[in-house]
Amino acid sequence: MGKPTVHLLYTCPFSWKIRGLVDYIGLDVDYIGINGLRAKKELAFVEDWNKVPVLTDSDGSIHYDSTPMMFYLDEKYNSSKLTTTGDVERRDEWLQWVDTKMSKATIPILYGGLFSALQTTVRVSKLEKFGFFSRRLYAWAGFPIMWGFIARSRVKKDGRTPKQLWHDLLSEFTSSHNGDFFSGDSPDIVDFAAFGYMRSISPFPQFSKLEDHEAGMAWYNRMMATIQ
Question: Domains, the chain, ranges and CATH?
Answer without folding.
Answer: 5-77 (3.40.30.10), 88-227 (1.20.1050.10)
